[in-house]
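Predict structure. Chain length: 287.
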Amino acid sequence: MPICLATKDVDEIVETVSRIAPAYGGINLEDISAPRCFEIERRLQERLDIPVFHDDQHGTAVVVTAALTNAAALTGRPLSELSVVISGAGAAGVAITDMLLAAGVGDIAVCDRTGVLEGSRADLTDVKRKVAERTNTGGRSGHLFGALRGADVFIGVSGGTVAQDVVESMAPAPIVFSLANPVPEIHPDVAHAAGAAVVATGRSDFPNQINNVLAFPGIFRGALDAGATRITESMKLAAAQAIAGLVSDRLAPDRIVPDPFDPRLAATVSEAVAQAARSAGVVRPSA
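Prediction complete.
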């Protein structure tokens, strides 16, 4: 049931959602920009005993994690050995970073408009500083284009344009996820011309669409079925693994995620999420 609020004030949003929450089994937050989205989600989850989920953050992160799991397997590279550069330090970029770290990705550098998030920068917000503290083990610095030199993976969630010669400076046969809509940061034709092994976008007219619809219905179905009081990192990882597993036996450069209309999708994700909720002990005793 969509409910639109005529406010952007954090306190008003938290208070309004808290007051209507008893009528619902879960709350999906939509189209709330960073950094407000982080505080709103945190405060609501602390206050409520039902799942609170910001789809722009976590739905995107789950599908990216599933896609990268399969792209890494397809190219014969363990997640732990990947060098990943993320362009964008907003809601999606931060959530993707957290999910990939939880999934075991070895080295992640996150870039905003100024460059790589690193501890020496004095202009970082609290959220970005926390990202800097747990990323960039490879010691990258400077702007996005320089950070991409030698990297295995590009994940774009910020817009802008990355030229072909920058992609060519990445590691051989890189993985390119250009998710800005409607104009990807790196057009698939450019990425392939630069030697990319696997390319994904946020658009439905190219192969490998990274779309939240692959995750969102199943995650909430599983949380509701289990009687979960929150959606944990383990539940999100279970969703990512379930999505990846639906195509793991038929991987191809143009098939690293399932079709959104795959009849197995929602049920497979919901079952995995419900089991993860029970294992995490975040279900009501009667569930």
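Summary: The first helix runs from residue 10 to 20.
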